[in-house]
């Protein structure tokens, strides 16, 4: 598997990366961990003339708690997220999802920024990002901006990133009060991508009533989505298994479902409900 | 000294391989080497109106471009080397590169040779081919229908061969109280050896000698076939295949690509390398299985099996690959009765051309299909008569006292204790307890199931006389040469061709055991036709029973001569000398002894040899077995089905195998484990899918699900030991048993788990959605 030839540039800073992308006017692609891009290059499904390697930019690495959110640098690998004490303490469901990304090699090389920028419709991370209302920091020719994940992922392999934009970090707000979350995944036996993946968060008040519920679903169709019907069926109700069971039945009310060789649209609709229920059950505080 | 035969010593090949010091074909680097890339057809069936290679030729770094017309007179068509007799077999010419028509996606159309593999790959995109796309057929039964597109004009009905065995079992069916009929689909599998195929060729114009490094399971077969294809005599053609990263049958065939690389090296006067990429491996390396099987089993209500009728339609792909016709015929058709006493049986096989990648042997080759059908039919029969599946098996398994046993299909099973293996497995499984637990869990809405597979297989290929009788275009004996060096170290040369099975270790154990010397003192050489004697390679679980036996015979010849010399040294007659633990000793006089090493040295010094004894100590043997080997066993699989999603979890896997005496338990375990994984792969995950246009939809690891370690529990393995009576080691093969046994054990287990849903059979692979449709009342 040999890609078409391309030029290689190594950026030393985010600013330089943006400038390089700008100077190549849509002909360049950002290379981070390479675990999504390089297979595409080898299959010759994409043939950019230039790769801008951001792998050496120190400011894009690391995880830090900033106020009530965890900020994960774009170059942080899935393995680092999964192993991070900060993530495990504050957002265990993020660690849980990171642990299930691809295989060991992918987790060791693949990055959070690359993952979110690639926007694979069966990727794990977007489900968690949706459930936590993550915000993506993007740097482009006009400077930095923050984009909520729901405005960032626009379709299959399609994001709000401009041709000269670079993902700087993904900030995951830490839910307040008493809450629990979980990520439940049905991995494709060949690719390891989610046939269905559901990230759930349930927050309760002191009386045991659900005051906050968030459900992000990936893998079942063209793009990950927030299951707001499920959330609405939870909020205001007691945090019981019966409530969860009924709410999970609404998992396919939104989202665009599609089928493939392994799992039909019907089956994926079914899975969305089952995995929503399973994730929510584990999220009952 | 403890015997090294039967000891779990570590594989000596592993340190080399896992530290990157192996020498695979793609590791070969030669000065001035060029790189080839092959343009492959994107269409399953098309006429080539024209090919324009001018742009590719002008691309900087490209040295040459070859089309089908360029090579037509120089490379003979790729032959088929297994031609079952009385089968009206058709072998339409298989050109090394397509000339007028392409017949499957992946068929070679042109070859670019360039200064680097990158340039070669880029230049492929500059070749312009004008295709007239023709209708394609991918399903073997549809290919037989009237009006189906003909893959080859000269074979309008697409039937490549029609073969039969056994006699008409009509009387059994007349006497039957019960007849069970079923159609089975053996899905197409992709072998996916870890190492892709590769070839490097170097031609010496001065001497006329050609060396080809190639990913081969059988270098001498490659030499034999390439010699004919290229017109280079065998004594000028050297084939090297030392480290080969797995084959599973897919590296038996001689491929067009290998001949093309050799031609390019000769034409261009520079070494040429070609290594397929993974995408090519999916498309252009042989596939396995892909058959439709109609089975009818006649029996009595008391569980007695009376007769078996099998009709198979085998998808051969676009051409008949090297050994392909032998797979559905001899290796399937003769063993459909399995381990059961079925007095009447008949097999009929149609081999059919389609616009798909050619199929050939894939681990087990025919025997997994036969085992699958008879083991599924046994369960269906038990279900029909309301009898426990184990009781039906016990009733019909050939009893130990009836061996050697000649089956209704004419094979003579050499030895066996089928009930013994089943009994051991029953004890390991705790069968009665399992049934109680199954009942208990069902009341909680949980569904576990247990599946059995009592199997026998035919391996250790095989007696050459039979090879000839069944149309194999070669012998099936094996060679060994043993060279004892003056200092007592030993080099062994084998015609078998290990490519992952560990015979560098086990063969050293055989020889060290016989000579009573440390195993480290024995080196095993294989895979280079300039170093080893003529031999037939590794496939059909033959290396140890046939190649190992050749080695034992050769080693015994060494000992015979050494004994003469020892007797002379000890000044006694030969009869008074005994040999044990590496020492020749005067019987009853332990103080009078000479070591093996001492005798070896004297043999080489030759200062004082007995009259009529030649100096030196080397022996060679060509061992032709008198029968095949018939390993057997009983496997049981326990699964739990999540009826909400259809997902299957394998809870336990119990394997009791009998391959005769075990030379190295660790290597045998490794073979059993790998085999089980591959067999379960077919049952649960793997399956190549073509669309109607003949495009391979499962053309990468993103879609084609290979089994992963995390899918499995720890396997529970055990052995019974029933020696093969006809070879000097008593050994039978173990390389394929797991793959042969596991597939039906898993499917039987899932069907058992889903019995409350009225499930009688499921088509492989048992993907969760199929199960979900059943458990949710939707038609699968």
Give a quick summary of the entry.
The complex is a heterodimer of chains A (285) and B (780). Chain A is an alpha+beta fold and 285 residues long. Helix content of chain A is 33%, strand content 27%.
Shape of chain A: globular
Q: Kindly name the structural category of chain B.
A: alpha+beta
Tally of individual domains of chain B? 3
The assigned CATH architecture of the largest domain in chain B is: 2-Layer Sandwich
- Mean of pLDDT of chain A: 96
State the largest interface.
A-B, 18 and 28 residues
Strand content of chain A: 25-35%
How would you describe the oligomerization state of the chains in this entry? Answer: heterodimer
Shape of chain B: globular
User: Using only CA atoms, what is the Rg of chain B?
Assistant: 27 Å
Word description of this protein:
The complex is a heterodimer of chains A (285) and B (780). By secondary structure, chain A is α+β, with helices and mostly antiparallel strands. Chain A folds into three domains: 7-53, Uridine Diphospho-n-acetylenolpyruvylglucosamine Reductase, domain 2, CATH 3.30.43.10; 58-173, 2-Layer Sandwich (Uridine Diphospho-n-acetylenolpyruvylglucosamine Reductase, domain 3); 178-283, 2-Layer Sandwich (Enolase-like, domain 1), CATH 3.30.390.50. In chain A, 33% of the residues lie in helices and 27% in strands. Chain A is built from twelve helices and 14 strands. In chain A, a hairpin with a 6-residue loop joins strand 11 (178-187) and strand 12 (194-204). The termini of chain A are far apart. The mean pLDDT of chain A is 96. With 780 residues, chain B is α+β, with helices and mostly antiparallel strands. Chain B has three domains: 14-134 and 194-246 and 251-284, Aldehyde Oxidoreductase, domain 3 (Alpha-Beta Complex); 288-461 and 627-775, 2-Layer Sandwich (Aldehyde Oxidoreductase, domain 4), CATH 3.30.365; 477-489 and 500-623, Aldehyde oxidase/xanthine dehydrogenase, molybdopterin binding domain (Aldehyde Oxidoreductase, domain 4, 2-Layer Sandwich). Chain B has 21 helices and 28 strands. In chain B, helix 11 runs parallel beside helix 20 (737-753) and helix 16 runs parallel beside helix 17 (543-570). The longest helix of chain B has 28 residues, at 543-570. Chain B starts with 13 loop residues before the first helix and ends in a 5-residue tail after the last helix. The model of chain B has no long low-confidence stretch (mean pLDDT 97). Classes of the chains: A alpha+beta (285), B alpha+beta (780). Chains A and B meet through helix 12 of A and helix 4 and helix 21 of B.
